[in-house]
Amino acid sequence: MNSLDFSIVLQAWPYLWSGLLFSLALTAVAFVVGLVLGTGLALVQHFEMPVIGKLVRGYVALMRSIPLILVLFWFFFLVPIVLGHLGGSGRPVPIGATWTAFITFGLFEAAYYSEIIRVGLRAVNRGQFEACQALALSTFDTYRSVILPQVLRVASPIILSQTIILFQDTSLVYVLSLTDLLGAASKLAQLNGRLVEMYLVIAVVYLAISSAASQGVALLRKRYAIARR
Amino acid sequence: MFAVLLEQTADGQRYIDWLLSGLGWTLTLAFFGWWIAFIVGVVVGIGRTVQNRAVAVLARLYVEIFRNIPVLVQMFLWYFVLPELLPASLGNAIKQIPPPWGSFFPALVCLGLYTAARIAEQVRAGIEALPKGQIEAASALGLSGYRTYRHVIVPQALRLIIPSLTSEVMGIYKNTSVALTIGLMELTAQARQISEATFQTFTAFGAATLVYLALALIAYQGMALIDRAVRIPGTGRAEDVKPAATRDAQQLDSLPDAMEIVK
């Protein structure tokens, strides 16, 4: 083979950088949407609401049983149809791959975050609920001011670990031909034929970001362990 | 709605045959990948816990590298990059492997070694969860380091971690879908191909989804069965022994390993 030439990566860097920014934006949006929606899904299950509780359980189980790539294909196909019906025209509304990615990752991650929060909710001491009742807090205030802050705090290392995995999973938008970090590298590799350098460099970028983040989470976990009763 | 699956394809088969062939590849990849992952994972997991610093550092490095690079990128490294880095004759020989094996083997190695890093962490957690008395008793009996691991530590640790290995089993069969990016026609790829050939996207994806759901159920039940069969008597399930509050708190502690994997 030819000798490696990493100077090509320097030229390509602006494009790779924009790809990385897309990966990070997708991660951030999926994190926020997934966490908010996931908390909602967890609460619905926690309250054991009739019918809708069962539906949510089914949704979470389904999302956790099928591969993310298949979910991406599903949403790419389904979301335009659903939007068409919601819009009243009945005709599919094409939304493009970028929107599909954001919607899919938000909804998909919600299922994973909701499992974490659901278990966290069960771990809250009964006394906390009883104390809220004794203080005559409404159900809404109980959860907003007492229960959820504790759950989010206890579960934060797990939530963050899940987010690191989410960041790695954003590379799967490759199947929608989007230009995330991996997509940028693969498009450049096709143009200049230097796929060895391209893939090695982005592997190192992913590795650096993910392991730095994992170290951070480990640190957080350690500090939290001391504060614990 | 699934009637279209029984129709003839352009190559004289039925669409359901495409789906079954995809399922075959998914299962083959998951099955053999699992055994690679399990063997490498146990070895690396043991390596994480031994006194020897060099071994421990190497094992740690293995886990860090294979866990922190996305599985799709690893797939490309095995498929596109490795043949280029090897000596030309060997690299060309690899590129000459006829399809579908040319995609199957890189996918197998990729999924096996990727999942191994996750299993290694579970094994390490299992070993560290054992009471210190076990090792002390073994050395009081004069067992060598090797025999302590072989007869005392590893058997117990493996029995402890079976519940958390369930999510690894589910992870590996779902990750087989990533192999479609290097051209392996596994279940998801076949579903997409059927959808493109028939425009019956709902049917094609629906059928694949049902198959994946069935696989998840089988994996879950199978692991529960194994867990019941080999659980260490007396340790029981935490649920049986402990009051509810501790049980739930404990469940939260075990979450990181159990939850973060499955995609």
Automatic annotation (TrEMBL), chain A:
InterPro entries: AA_ABC_transptr_permease_3TM, ArtM/GltK/GlnP/TcyL/YhdX-like, MetI-like, MetI-like_sf
Gene Ontology molecular function: transmembrane transporter activity
Domain named ABC transmembrane type-1: residues: 20-213
The keyword DNA-binding is annotated on this UniProt entry: no
Pfam families (UniProt xref): BPD_transp_1
A GO biological process held by the record: amino acid transport
Stored SUPFAM superfamilies: MetI-like
One CC-aspect GO term: ATP-binding cassette (ABC) transporter complex
Entry's transmembrane regions: 20-44, 65-87, 93-113, 154-178, 198-220
Gene3D superfamilies according to UniProt: MetI-like (1.10.3720.10)
Membrane topology (UniProt): Multi-pass membrane protein
Main location: membrane
Alphabetically ordered keywords of this record: Amino-acid transport, Cell membrane, Membrane, Transmembrane, Transmembrane helix, Transport
Function, in words: Part of the ABC transporter complex GltIJKL involved in glutamate and aspartate uptake. Probably responsible for the translocation of the substrate across the membrane.
Family recorded in the similarity comment: Belongs to the binding-protein-dependent transport system permease family. HisMQ subfamily.
Oligomeric and partner information: The complex is composed of two ATP-binding proteins (GltL), two transmembrane proteins (GltJ and GltK) and a solute-binding protein (GltI).
Protein name: Glutamate/aspartate import permease protein GltK
UniProtKB/TrEMBL annotation, chain B:
GO molecular function: transmembrane transporter activity
Superkingdom of origin organism: Bacteria
Keyword Transmembrane (UniProt): yes
Keyword tags: Cell membrane, Membrane, Transmembrane, Transmembrane helix, Transport
ABC transmembrane type-1 domain segment(s): 23-223
Protein localization: Cell inner membrane; Cell membrane
GO terms of biological process kind: amino acid transport
TM segment ranges: 23-46, 58-81, 101-120, 202-223
CDD domains according to UniProt: TM_PBP2
Family designation: Belongs to the binding-protein-dependent transport system permease family. HisMQ subfamily.
Full protein name: Glutamate ABC transporter permease
Species in which this protein is naturally found: Bradyrhizobium forestalis
